[in-house]
Amino acid sequence: RREYNIVVLGAGGVGKSCLTAQFVQNVWIESYDPTIEDSYRKVVDVDGKSTVLEILDTAGTEQFTSMRGFLLVYSITSLSSFNELAPIRDAILRIKEVDEVPMVICGNKSDLEGDRQVSKNRANHISKKWGNVPLYESSAKKRLHVDDAFMNLTRQMIRMMGAT
Ligand code: GDP
Ligand code: MG
User: Name one GO biological process term (predicted).
Assistant: First the structure.
């Protein structure tokens, strides 16, 4: 079976662990130990082909090995978490061994519209500037666009790294 590695990166508290738990286990976990860094396996079907995803939910440690897909998460309620994405992307591109890096941006906590600090326009601008990196406004809590984000990333990895 083909296997791909995904790394979930972003500022503390944006919902990386909650997104990962929703995608892998279909559960909403209100409170996750912010220091826990762990990897999870999920088998998904992509166009009838069984595909293994190994997902690393990071907790501050940088994991920038190339040949991985990167889910860059910010919270729509935190401008500072949004601003942290550019340096993360720079660090990824510095170590990359390939021209194109599979990447998706997730503006999480979209259910908290009343607390929004990052407009959709502002996020779209970054997405375009970075070469149309797919952007989703997700909610781990409501399970909105969780699968879309991970599956878009998976399809990019299959496309760029080949269906091994
Ligand atoms: P991490 O540090 O990036 O792994 O963040 P966590 O996944 O631990 O989530 C941090 C906090 O944000 C927790 O209190 C979660 O309950 C909350 N949270 C995560 N995702 C969402 C979301 O989509 N909506 C809302 N309202 N809260 C969220
Ligand atoms: Mg976490």
Answer: signal transduction
